[in-house]
Amino acid sequence: MQQAPIALDKWGKCGKYFEWQDHHVYYQRGGNGEAMLLIHGFPTCSWDWCWVSRPLIQDYHLIVPDLLDYGRTLNSRKKTCTIMDQADMLEALMAHREISEVHILAHDVGDTVTQELLARQNAGQLSFHIKSALFLNGGMLPHMHRPRTVQTLLAGKFGPIIARSASRKNFLRGFADVFGANTRPEGEFLEEFWPAMLGVNGRGAFARRIRYMHERLEHADRWVGALKETKVPMMLINGVDDPVSGGHAADAMEREIGMKVVRLPGIGHFPQIEAPDTIVELVQQFQDCIVKNGFVQPTPLRQSSWGQ
Length: 308
Fold this sequence. Notes:
Mean pLDDT: 92
Low-confidence stretches: 296-308
Distance between the termini: 29 Å
Radius of gyration: 18 Å
CATH superfamily: Alpha/Beta hydrolase fold, catalytic domain
Helix content: 40-55%
Number of helices: 15
CATH architecture: 3-Layer(aba) Sandwich
CATH class: Alpha Beta
Shape: globular
Oligomer: single chain
Largest sheet: 9 strands, mixed
Number of strands: 9
């Protein structure tokens, strides 16, 4: 397991903000080349991507936001934000940055947000164009999702009480349990994830964020259908030792969607943290394959420096 190449507080100081409705949305940006949108998962924030961002900015213009109610994105009214809200915010962010075409690298709930974006694109209703979608572990097929006990409790009737009363130790133990046996964060390194999970919105955000589990069931036809209908080049990179959406989910994605899958033995739910060098290599191979097969044509963006 590699320590974070950028400390969380330093990561936070290097970003920008834009206003969307009642939210003060934090995002990182920078790098050269085609635009790539990195969408993080539950329960953390955009800092998850710091393990892969530095090499990727050599070839791509990265946009890396904290989703609504996550990380440094302030949810001033403490409202529950839906997957539709997240997609709306990302459309606004792309317009704010004047980006019309983008590749997506997504993880966990970020996969679900991407499914909604693909559904909009399939219907001709998306304000920007998705050129490719590369997914990491996530519950894209609701019937294959195996939530942990804490997730089920947070999503239930007493979720707000659980969010306020459960100990930090228990939250962090549950977080570490979804990693691979040999890539599990421990000690001080594990403690670094607590402020990334807590964010600026506090403990109450845990129970609000987890509502996406109900939404996945409610919108299953739309979001699974989006994967089946899209013409966008897609691939799944799956840490097979993930108890939530590991090898069993990868098998189903291959069988039911026909998606190309790359399996990572010994890796759990966070491949970008557990095997960052492998993820960067696979991103490059995936993009090279797309270009060589003529699916997309490169459209370089203006140059910029990471964190400026």
